[in-house]
Each structure stands twice: as structure tokens, then as C-alpha cells.
Design goal:
single chain; globular; MATE_euk; 335 residues; mainly alpha
Length: 335
């Protein structure tokens, strides 16, 4: 995701400059880079269990996460193809098409999950198969839309030009990767640290639910001018306030759709106030990050993320959670 975010800057600027043919070239360059990065990430998937053991995580969590990581290798490569396609379409304001394909994939995913997990009782492998097929459905649907000629001028077929100019593209990609990795690794580091708390399985489950939903609800990264920024901030903040209110109103049942453990549901309920404020802040922060990406300020945001997340958040969270024994709730406050 980090390496692919360079495409947000380049596709947006190319479309604005009416260099439509470069959109397809940029997308193909991004495919090459992201597929190479996916291959580099394979060892993390293959050796997830020993890596988690190295970080002293709960044994059951380490084993289960390691198994699931192996099942999800196809999704890794699907995401490497999907992210550039999404940015290619987004730069051309093909948002409704993306929404339609995503909606179809969602219905397909839910139905297949019920069939494999609920009806055939295949458990974790069934969930993984459903996720993988859903991701590849999105990739196939989006690329089919492009290949059928719905992006004239922007897609002219596969081109050898994708293999040129990779150096500057990689440099911007690295800046994007550092910016986003510093943000997302922060949440993952929190979950790893929470794995050292008392009742680690419950704590990890509760924080993971909160982090995952928070990331998904705040995933929009628009590129816009001043008026558009204001509109997006207002709309995002409005949605943030709505979800803030919903989380507080349904705090006692919020975790029910995500787990069958009563202890985890209670832990999520205890974190509801913290989680609600996190959602509110996350409704604004990704918009500002998106503006920075659109302007090509990835390296600047990388420095800001480094200072805020790692210079302030993790040290304070670790001090309060472990030294003062405030546990998972204070760890969440540092988010």
C-alpha cells in the first residue's frame, strides 16, 4: 500500500495535465514494483509463527496467525495488482464503477463465507478461501472494465514504457511507503505490545477489532484543492461524529459481530469511549494525509509520522501500560 501510494500523486497530476496515456504506463510500473515487493514480503508470511514467537507473543496466537498468513498469500499478490488499478480508476473519477464492483465482491464474499464457514464448517481455511476469491474478483472485475475500452486514452494496452523511468518512480514510492508504513506499523506494534499484557488473547482481539474498523472507516485519501479539502473535511468529520455516536450508543454489543467470546465483547465495550474518539480523529487525519500525497509531500509526512507515532505515542503508551500497569485501555489512548 505504501509503495503503491506514489500512484496517487503521479496519476492525479498526469490526469490534471491531460497526459492521459501516462496513467496506464504509471499503473504498469506500479504493478512491477508491487509484485516485486510482494515477493520480498513472502518470508514474513512463510515464517509468521516463528517471528511472532521471537516477539514473545502468545503461543496460540502465533500458531493461528502463522496458519492464516500461509492461507492468505494469494491475497498478497491480488492486492499488489488491485491497488494500482484502484488509483488508476480513481484518478479518472470512475468511483461508481469501483463501488459497483466492490459491492458485488462484498455480496459474493459474504455468501461464500457463510457457505464455507457456516454451512460446511471449514473454519479458518474456508474464511481464507473466501477472502482470496473476493479479492481476485475485485481485481478481475476492475481490469475487465479497463480492458473492454472504458478508459480511452488512459489504457492503450501493455507497454514497454513501463520498464523505463523506474528509478524516479521507485524513489517516490519509497517516500510513500515510509509515510504509510510508519502509520500502519504503529498500530501493528501496539498489537504486538498488547500481546505482552495479562490475558493477551482477549486484549489482542479487542484492540485488533478497534484498529481494523478504525482504519477501514478512515481509508479515503482524496486529492483536492482548497474548496474540495474543506468539503471533504466537513463530510468526513460529519461521518466521524455519526460513528462516534453509534459506537457509544451500542458499546455493549459493538464487538458481537466480530467474535463469539463474551470476554472479548466486554473488553471492546470497556474500550468504547477511547475507540469512539479514535474514530473521530481518524475521520480527519486520512484526509489531510491524502492532500499531502496528492501534493507529493510524502517525505514531509513521513517525518511528521515518525515524530508523532514513535516519538510520542509508543513511548507514552508503553510507559503507562507496563510501568504504571494501566493495561490495554491506556495503550489504546496512545493511538
Amino acid at each position: 500500500m505504501g509503495m503503491g501510494s506514489a500512484l496517487e500523486t503521479l496519476c492525479g497530476q498526469a490526469y490534471g495535465a491531460k497526459q492521459f496515456h501516462m496513467l496506464g504506463v504509471y499503473m504498469q510500473r506500479s504493478w512491477l514494483i508491487l509484485l516485486a515487493m510482494s515477493a520480498c514480503l513472502l518470508p514474513v508470511y512463510l515464517f509468521a509463527t516463528p517471528l511472532l514467537r521471537l516477539f514473545k507473543q502468545d503461543e496460540d496466537i502465533a500458531v493461528l496467525a502463522g496458519r492464516f498468513a500461509l492461507y492468505m498469500i494469494p491475497q498478497l499478490f491480488a492486492y499488489a495488482l488491485n491497488f494500482p488499478i484502484s488509483k488508476f480508476l480513481q484518478a479518472q473519477s470512475k468511483v461508481l464503477v469501483m463501488a459497483g464492483i466492490a459491492a458485488f465482491a462484498l455480496v459474493f464474499h459474504v455468501a461464500l463465507t457463510w457457505l464455507l464457514v457456516g454451512y460446511f464448517r471449514l473454519g479458518l481455511p474456508g474464511a481464507a478461501v473466501s477472502l482470496n476469491l473476493a479479492w481476485w474478483t475485485v481485481v478481475g472485475g476492475q481490469f475487465a472494465y479497463i480492458a473492454m475500452g472504458n478508459c480511452p486514452g488512459a489504457w492503450n494496452g501493455f507497454s514497454w514504457a513501463a520498464f523505463t523511468g523506474l528509478g524516479s518512480f521507485v524513489w517516490l514510492s519509497i517516500g510513500s511507503a515510509i509515510m504509510l508504513c510508519l502509520e500502519f506499523w504503529y498500530y501493528m506494534i501496539l498489537i504486538v505490545l498488547v500481546g505482552h499484557l495479562k490475558d493477551a488473547q482477549i486484549a489482542v482481539a479487542a484492540v485488533s477489532i478497534c484498529v481494523r474498523i478504525s482504519n477501514e472507516l478512515g481509508a479515503g485519501r482524496p486529492r483536492a484543492a482548497k474548496f474540495s479539502i474543506l468539503c471533504v473535511l466537513i463530510s468526513s468529520l460529519t461521518l466521524g461524529i455519526i460513528f462516534f455516536s453509534l459506537v457509544l450508543a451500542f458499546r455493549d454489543v459493538y464487538g458481537v459481530p466480530f467474535t463469539n467470546s463474551a470476554d472479548v465483547v466486554r473488553a471492546v465495550s470497556d474500550l468504547a469511549v477511547v475507540f469512539a474518539f479514535t474514530l473521530l480523529l481518524n475521520s480527519v487525519q486520512p484526509v489531510l494525509s491524502g492532500v499531502a500525497v496528492g501534493a507529493g509531500w510524502q517525505w514531509l509526512v513521513a517525518y511528521v509520522n515518525l515524530g508523532c507515532y514513535y516519538g510520542v505515542g509508543i513511548p507514552i503508551g508503553g510507559l503507562l501500560a507496563f510501568y504504571y500497569n494501566f493495561g490495554v485501555k491506556v495503550r489504546s489512548y496512545s493511538m
